[in-house]
Amino acid sequence: MQITETKKKSFFSGLTGQIIIAMVLGAVLGIIIHNSISQEAAVSFSNKIKMLATIFIRLVQMIIAPLVFTTLVVGIAKLGDIKTVGRVGGKALGWFFTASFVSLLIGLFFVNILEPGVGLKLDHVDMAAASEVTAKTKILSVENFVEHIVPKSIFEAMATNEILQIVIFSIFFGLAAASLGSTVKPIINAFDKASHIVLKMVNYVMNFAPIGVFGAIAGVFAIRDAEELIITYFKFFGSFLVGIGTLWVVLVVVGYIFLKGRMTELLKRITGPLAIAFGTTSSEAVFPKLTEELEDFGVKNKIVAFMLPLGYSFNLDGSMMYMTFASIFIAQFYGVHLDVGTQMAMLLVLMLTSKGIAGVPRASLVIVAATCGMFKIPVEGIALILPIDHFCDMFRSATNVLGNALATSVVGKWEDGKEEKLDIAEEN
Per residue in 101-133, is it b (16+ CB within 10 Å) or e — as a string? Predict the structure, then answer.
């Protein structure tokens, strides 16, 4: 009995337990506010209490750029040469594109089987609400794709938290440092110490996570009638959960195939980051904490530093699944017939266009709107999914975290095996 009580105390005093409590309290407060005051007052309350989430996310964003830069430079320098970087990068991109394709395919499969948009009647849809999203569809141009990848200034990239641009600069910087050998060792050591300082800051920032989650959840429930939304969008949301649940099963099974019994340990370690991503609908908010957990899990810091920033640009599995699901849902609602060939073409378009929008707010919806326009589906249909999007975003953000944790762990294991073979060869 004593042991059980100790475990319970340990859980609820830990970060994950505090976040779960914060979610429940936030939902309860939001529902009370929603049912007891006017809509205008509820909106005002929501805007104010969401500032707690905004503060937390901004604190995290404050440390992402220095963390990515310092850890990645050290990681590249330790990898040693272009050949090794190319090998790890090739494995990473191979995994990312395969995972993206499978995620898109799962969304495509379930939206066609369950047909949540067929025969659906939605009254009082606010089409004007979609204007903010559709206005951003211009970002999906070749020029903007290049701009999101190649930085013109590392300082601008850091100021705007353009992770992919920071990655590109850090790779060049790290390779150049590695090529100069021992003469730059003091600088690499300084970056290494700086990265540990930033990771220490992560511990301080994460103490604010439950408060941020509380504010995010309370703010949403204060202005949304969750029960009415779930009833109205029951078929859409239920079908989405079937799809995202299937994706989780696939990811976990793949994890057990490659990591064996250690997958259970990985899942336990990332429970906190998953809860934060779920509560704040931001996978970016857990980047520093996920870095720390994966290193504690045993993945070498040079692999974590290389894989995670790339993953946040190329490996958003939950968002990928949602993109095909939402695009076909809108087509079904408007009665736009898309044959199998057209749907597969849409899948390939989504596969490519989704890779150039790292750091774009509400990126999934922006891509869905742009894709609808390409395939003659009414772009204003994005307004159909806006009311329920926040709840979908909770699940896809958590799925993004799972996908990146798995990809980093598996590639880390592959590289460990590669290094062991190289060590044996050198000894012989």
Answer: ebbbbbbbebbeebebbeeeeeeebeeeebeeb
Instruction: Report whether 274 contacts 370 (CB < 8 A).
Output: no
Q: What angle do CA 100, 103, 106 make, to 5 degrees?
A: 150
Q: What is the Cα–Cα distance from 154 to 17, expressed in whole angstroms? A: 38
CA 221 to CA 233: how far, in whole Å?
16
Is 237 within 8 Å of 325 (Cβ atoms)?
A: no
How far from 22 is each of 35, 43, 73, 208, 211, CA to CA, in Å? 20, 20, 37, 11, 7
Name the DSSP class of 93. Answer: H
Length of the chain: 428
DSSP-H helix ranges across 207-339:
209-223, 226-232, 234-259, 262-269, 271-280, 287-297, 301-314, 317-333
Residue whose structure tokens are 């641009």:
165
pLDDT tens, residue by residue, 192-219: 899 889 888 888 888 888 999 899 889 8
Is the Cα dihedral 305, 306, 311, 312 positive or negative?
Answer: positive
DSSP label of 121: -
pTM check: above 0.85: no
